[in-house]
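Run log, item B.
One chain of 178 residues. Sequence copied directly from the ordering sheet:
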Amino acid sequence: MTARTTPTMATPSRGLVWAGVFFGLGLGGFFDGIVLHQVLQWHHMLTSAGYPADSLHNLEINTLADGLFHAITYVFVALGLLVLWRSARRGLLRWSGRLLAGSLLVGFGLFNLIEGIVNHHILGIHHVNETVPREQWFWWDLGFLAWGALMLAVGWMLLRRGLRETAAGALAPISDAL
């Protein structure tokens, strides 16, 4: 039997973790863009950068910026798929559901923290909820960061446990995984 057809599982790959993190980054961006930008319409990419959504011209600029933002999150999902595909091609893999959930939460939490710190606090190009009085924006932005930090912490704990479970199951026969 070749390495690809042996009845034992391959050891966990860092690629699986990176695939989950990229998927989490993309899903975090899609959640932000779809729920906060489009459904709730709390903000757009540039509403605090001199383009408030109070005219057709500004809305067109924000729609383009939102679309570019979605394109970037799409790239994260495509990278996740590519890394997952490459990892799966290396052999039969059995991985813990905690590894998947943990890596997704790590990526989603990282998205919130990076996007929140850069766009909300450093650049100030938009804030989480611009439909509330301006004095409350900071608290919504802080809540967004806390939500991201919580997802990152829970994801990290799940990821570590999932790595241990996946490694422990690496030598189990395929029939045990089915």
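Observations after the first pass:
- Residues 96 and 139 are 36 Å apart (CA to CA).
- The chain has a mean pLDDT of 87.
Flagged for discussion on Thursday.
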